[in-house]
Prior knowledge:
The chain has six helices and eight strands, in the order ααββαββββαβαβα. The chain is largely without helices or strands and about 325 residues long.
Amino acid sequence: MKKLLTIMFFMALSVVAMYGMADAITGQCSNCHTMHDSQDGVDGGGPNDLLLKGSGCGGCHTQNGLPSAPQVDLTSNLSAGGSFDTTTIATDDSMRHDVQDLSLTESAITSTPGKTGSILTVAPNALTCAGAVGCHGKHVTGMGSDAGIKGSHHAPNATYRFLWIGTTTSPTAVLGIGDVDYEVTVDDSDHNVYSAHATQSISTFCNQCHNQFHGEPETGGPSSPWIRHPTDIALFSGPVAWDSAKVNIHANDAPIALIAIGANTTTTNYYSGGTPGLDETNSAVMCLSCHRAHGTANADLLRWSYATVLAGGAKSKCLSCHYKQSNAP
């Protein structure tokens, strides 16, 4: 028995050395799991799937869940995804993604859109946090949140925020680098790093449902106006030369994505000096340049209200990139 335990111990060390633990959940197992859901009446409603203390995604990731887990319903110090809070922030269903796991339902849209001639491919009142009709985890038909996200928390994370593209058991990873504090605060050396990769970007991910906003055949350029805002397209110079010093490239209200992000990119590559690789050939607008994923205080989950964007105003919001329309130097 001692020999077997010794072998297993060194096998475990080999796995850690090979894959690393930086992207996997660490800490006491009992922070999240319980064996019998009996001691101290853990959550009052169990037992739960996967021996979790809380039920579903909200059992850990809300203010009533685990304090150590990122919370998706905060009213201040918001993460990059925004908030599902319905009391002070995303008070209207046009301001958030309504997910059944959090007992949110969409009332403004009652039809079930389809891909042809429609904005959405999934009915908004059918969304879950993860699974077949969710954002996180795998999207295999029939999978709910627990099955979709199963295993992700204890494996080296090959995707940005457990986001995958495709509906097979071997989906394509969304590339990107998540900041350790989930981008609660942002500056040149503390931010998420988003990818504008041709097939693995966050915009490609959003396109799985919002197909008419991204991924459709498109032409554009300085002499050919776009008919929808471009995403994952390198920012061109236009009639006036691009000036990277004037673009709020890592601004909290209008971040951009970098085209040259590979699967093995680390934060060091992009945090050192703030903006290495930043130029018109490597920088692109993405869906999250203007929107947040969970919810905001603005319609359409926008990072800001259009009513606050004024030509000649400060270099922020839309004018973070369209700086020539700003009065800032």
